[in-house]
Specification:
This protein has helices spanning 87-97, 116-123, 138-153, 158-161, 172-179, 186-192, 197-208, 212-231, 235-241, 247-258, 262-268; strands at residues 3-9, 12-17, 22-27, 31-38, 40-45, 48-53, 57-60, 65-71, 78-85, 110-111. The strands form two sheets. Strands 1-2-9-4-7-10 form a six-stranded antiparallel beta sheet. Strands 3-8-5-6 form a four-stranded antiparallel beta sheet, with no helix packed on it. With 270 residues, the chain is α+β, with helices and mostly antiparallel strands. 41% of the residues lie in helices and 22% in strands. The chain is globular, with a radius of gyration of 21 Å. The longest helix has 20 residues, at 212-231. β1 and β2 form a beta hairpin. The protein has two domains: 3-161, Jelly Rolls (Sandwich), CATH 2.60.120; 172-268, Orthogonal Bundle (Arc Repressor Mutant, subunit A).
Amino acid sequence: MEYQAKYITEDIKLSCYQDKFFKSDIMFEHHMLIWFISGETKIVCAEGTYMFKKGDVFLIPRNQLATIINYPTDGLPHKTVVMHLTTEWLRNFYTKLNVKPTKENTQTIKHYTNHPLLESCLSSLIPYFEMRDLPKDIANLKITEAVTILRSIDIEIDNILASFEEPGKIDLADYMEKNFMFNMPLEKFGYLTGRSLTTFKRDFEKVFATTPQRWLTKKRLDLAHYQFVEKKRKPIEVCYEVGFENLSHFSFAFKKKFGYTPTELISSRS
């Protein structure tokens, strides 16, 4: 995979994937404001699946689990401008405003399709990626501009950006049922459910009467089987969206559980 990134600071970058395909399961530690220049991305979250393409601007909230699948299109690479809105920066920004969230953060991706103010703000960054001697404090000014625009066009955005609480202890069964398809280390699942790794494993076995890894594998394979039978989807699509890293391992695990490969299942029903 050929990946290139240019930075104004560590919080503002121009990201470019040249390959035809790239997939990753990640947890966003910071809010991310993204503007698409070319290519396509599928983002699979607990609340749904999103497709983003050229011209789209969207915000991904922090502590969000997601599967990211990048697709170059029309012979062009997957290229985006990415702005991290860190907790430290936002805390300082909102302290000056004395603004507090009015309701619980829903952790939903916010989509601002072809919005002229946001697109103008983010596209204006392009020349800076080629400069060595940047104007002093330019990154802070551009992030301030972006957040100010967000606050002017989205009356709900303060409930996301001004929320600084870390994940508290939440219902384990409900969270895992919604997020099992993300291939995260158990430490991440523990953090997002408000538990240490040891407590997460202990609580998990109390709730599900099995180990996390066995339960996760079963849930992912059952979901894949459902996608093949009910949704008529292809193995290459299902494999990555249910939490597997490559098609061969997925096919092996699928056959071990069900006695036939995904291809054999699909062929028998066609």
